[in-house]
Specification:
Polyamine Oxidase, Chain A, domain 2, binds flavin-adenine dinucleotide, seven-stranded mixed beta sheet, alpha+beta, 3 domains, about 500 residues, protoporphyrinogen ix oxidase, domain 3, 16 helices, five-stranded parallel beta sheet
């Protein structure tokens, strides 16, 4: 029986382990062992259930709180695991984003797709942008392309930062007011460093195809509307939403994957410290002193952890991994009684642009965005702190982070200043967000090229081709495919047809 060692128990590592177990269930002579340094599994998927003193409970996500339905991997895996019914769409009736502007909250105008306006009247009437800012955005319609790509070229050959791209197409205000907090915020990235080719290549492609982002997004909107007409929701089906979660939080997913892998194959609370290879055998030494041997190895940790682990295996790969910077962040959840929150509670989130210079990047109104996150009459809020420009804020102790968020909620939402939250929770994610800086895809290509030359070794995780949970699961599955193939195991799964067909 061949054995694959997997280091890292986040979405990617569990995605890899679950795929290997599916190959075993299909009759292949293969097994796996997964090593996780923390006492719990899930990595950045971390949910906690907190009771309310008066009854009922809160469901809190400390890290990732949603997956997008446009990427099918999570739904596919959830159905395989038998937890498809636990998937919960966001409450679309409350879908609204507020942006902080000079201390006030302004609604993101209807028709803004990412950062491009596609509806005239909402753009004309919003106070989010100045009139010169609006005219500058409209210039996108007329500005020529920066350059024409040669036949066969892709965004990767024409990488550009988010800042450079948005400023040249739509002006500084479009960047500062929406693109930075919304688009940069997805990756908790610095727009002056963030690679568009690695994150949103479609922006660069739109410029090529349509000569204008507004025209590109208008075309996308038209296509979406046509799809909606063509595939109307089936009677009785759950409503479609862009953002989704699980009934008891995102960790439901990793817990179900861990159960399917088999808890007896998982070691928690023990870090892999040394990797060695002798002939065809991989040896992983744990912090506990235990040594695990296997026929293949998948490293599915954060980039900085993989850098350390890979040093003795392949210094060139380790060097390239070390070029992927990672930023830290924290989420701070707190609950209040509804009567202490005298604000409209029909919105998903607040974005605070960096130009506002606040010690908080975003707020999610979890009790409005999701069903059953808080008992009746309670309000659950989650503040987001950190990102590349605000790393210093994370040096503060937990109590200070809580107070920072509470004071921002008092200031922005008029939460009663004299009341203490019912409870608070702080979750820190040190080096938790890989930064896809300019040239990221070239680095990843080179990492993959070098890894392809090492039989029985694969890397997986959010550091490479997408930080979203679906991307991470798929990256784990690709890593499993690589090592299975190299162990002469040919296991092919049929992908179910997309929904609506
Ligand atoms: C605050 C926050 C909010 C986010 N929100 C969203 C969201 O809403 N939607 C979305 O799609 N994505 C979101 N993301 C991104 C997404 O959650 C992550 O990209 C994804 O979960 C990463 O999965 P992973 O398996 O690659 O890595 P991780 O989850 O980081 O897992 C890596 C694991 O490796 C373990 N490890 C490290 N070193 C060792 C070692 N030496 N030995 C053994 N184990 C080791 C770690 O303890 C960790 O458990 C968010 C991320 C953060 C930080």
């Amino acid at each position: 029986m061949k054995k694959v060692i997997i280091i890292g128990g986040g979405a990617a590592g569990l995605g890899a382990a679950y795929k290997i177990r599916r190959a075993a269930a299909a009759g292949h002579d293969i097994d796996c062992v997964l090593i996780e340094k923390d006492d719990r599994l899930g990595g950045k998927l971390m949910s906690e259930i907190v009771p309310d003193p008066d009854g009922g409970e809160y469901v809190i996500d400390g890290g990732s709180d949603a997956f997008v339905s446009t990427k099918p991997a999570v739904a596919r895996i959830a159905r395989m695991l038998g937890i498809g019914d636990e998937m919960v769409p966001a409450r679309e009736e409350n879908k609204k984003t507020l942006i902080v502007k000079r201390g006030r909250l302004v609604e993101l105008p209807d028709g803004i797709m990412m950062f491009a306006p596609t509806k005239l009247m909402p753009l004309a009437t919003t106070s989010l942008y100045s009139w010169p800012g609006k005219f500058r955005m409209a210039l996108d319609w007329f500005l020529p392309r920066k350059e024409r790509w040669a036949e066969g070229e892709t965004a990767q050959q024409h990488d550009e930062t988010l800042e450079s791209f948005v400023v040249r197409r739509m002006g500084r205000e479009a960047l500062d007011r929406v693109a930075e907090p919304l688009v940069g915020g997805v990756h908790a990235s610095d727009p002056a460093q963030m690679s568009l080719a690695a994150t949103f290549p479609n922006f660069l492609e739109m410029e090529q195809e349509f000569g204008s982002l507004v025209r590109g997004f208008l075309n996308e909107r038209k296509k979406r509307e046509e799809m909606k007409k063509k595939f109307p929701p089936k009677p009785g089906a759950k409503p479609w939403a862009f953002f989704n979660t699980f009934h008891r939080g995102m960790q439901d997913l990793t817990d179900a994957m861990a159960d399917a892998v088999g808890r007896e194959r998982i070691i928690t609370g023990a870090a892999a410290t040394i990797i060695e290879r002798t002939g065809d055998t991989w040896r992983v030494t744990l912090g506990t002193g235990e040594v695990i041997e296997g026929d293949a190895l998948i490293v599915a940790t954060e980039a900085w952890a993989a850098t350390r682990l890979m040093r003795d295996v392949d210094s060139a790969i380790a060097g390239l991994l070390g070029e992927i910077p990672c930023s830290s962040s924290a989420t701070v959840s707190m609950a209040f009684r509804a009567e202490d929150c005298p604000f409209d509670q029909k919105w998903f989130g607040i974005l605070s642009p960096l130009v506002e210079d606040r010690p908080l990047l975003a707020v999610t109104l979890s009790s409005a965005k999701w069903p059953d996150r808080a008992p009746e009459g309670r309000v659950l809020l989650r503040g987001f702190i950190g990102g590349p420009q605000n790393q210093h804020l994370l040096e503060a102790p937990d109590e200070e982070l809580v107070e920072t968020v509470r004071l921002q909620l008092v200031d922005l939402l008029k939460v009663r200043p004299d009341v203490e939250p019912i409870f608070t929770r702080v979750y820190r994610w040190s080096g938790g967000m890989p930064q896809y800086t300019i040239g990221h895809l070239d680095r990843v290509d080179e990492i993959e090229r070098r890894t392809s030359e090492v039989s029985g070794l694969a890397l997986a995780g959010g550091a490479f081709r997408g930080v979203g949970i679906p991307n991470c699961i798929e990256s784990g599955e690709r890593a499993a495919d690589k090592v299975l193939g190299e162990l002469d195991i040919s296991y092919v799964e049929e992908t179910p047809p997309p929904r609506g067909r």
